[in-house]
């Protein structure tokens, strides 16, 4: 560097060295930032695929949990539009940040001898490769194969992003109302369960029997019914106390008339197992036989389990009987293979069943039901869809519980309550339990134009 004074030359060397060190540290920071941003966009892309590919069974599982990531995931799914808007907004912001940082990094690493066109091509290819591979393909492939696991993992982070981008997401969601209104004004091809049921009536109703039509309808709604909706409730369960003698157990089984009975210790919440009454046959002559050696393990299912899945488990495990428990592990009731099959083919009666079970039909518009009868069974008897009372049933499963949900307090005898065209009248009470309810179906009132 001839012609430059020694002091100036020393200053220039120091400047070049410090600039090189600064560029190296900058590059390291930019690489770390890019890696973090790629991880964030991978989580968001995977979450988008995971949340919107969950099956009804997965969503039931999430809603049955009360804490942790499952609860957060369930809350996010309650507002799907807000969830999607948040994912899209966050993903766009992160992608822009990735483009800026990668351009800064490649700009500092590409030698000055490379032309501007070639530098631009290298930058575009590099950014595209990173975004497509690590921000789209890999996370979405993983989320497709592990959607529930990915949803649980991502839900805390997505919940945080939802709060962060709520103002922007809210604007996007509200701005779509006009478009949705325009689209909704046009005829769509969406078919509801009621439309399917009506289609079944039109297509096979003229050539099939009423029983066959009901079987078709039963198959249609089968996939959305939970164990809680068709189980025999706890109050109606006949069980055996573990401390009973064999003579007491034998008499109890003869009086009950069931082939399988649960065995409990102290209360029905502590079920020890299941007894098959056929196992007693070789020991009937021994009054002091230790019957407890015949107890078989009980099979427990959550009350939110779909009976479609439960039927498969019954078939795989070759069992016909399960104990239904609530979220706290307490016994809610029992469910059998017969209960599941009746949802498709209707009531199954054998030579030992009584004719007058849970209801009496007065005429086509008036019925008397036992208060403990399940709402699903009531709907099947009166010929209404199973979801008829979903809006007002709350957490109740029986007709008596439905009456209390609508009324809001405990009734007196002959007190009535109305929902739509249905009138419910209490016919009999037993202390704090509704025993019988009369259901009257009035013709629907046509609204005047």
How is this structure best described in words?
There is one protein chain. This protein is α+β, with helices and mostly antiparallel strands and 449 residues long. The protein folds into 3 domains: 177 residues; 121 residues, CBS-domain; 83 residues, Uridine Diphospho-n-acetylenolpyruvylglucosamine Reductase, domain 3 (2-Layer Sandwich). 54% of the residues lie in helices and 15% in strands. It has 17 helices and 12 strands. It has a 5-stranded antiparallel β-sheet, with helices on one face. Strands 1-7-6-5 form a 4-stranded mixed β-sheet. β11 and β12 form a beta hairpin. The longest helix has 46 residues. The radius of gyration is 33 Å and the shape is elongated. The N terminus is likely disordered.
Poorly predicted segments: 1-5, 7-22
Structural class determined from secondary elements: alpha+beta
Output the number of helix runs.
17
Helix content: 40-55%
User: Any idea how many domains?
Assistant: 3
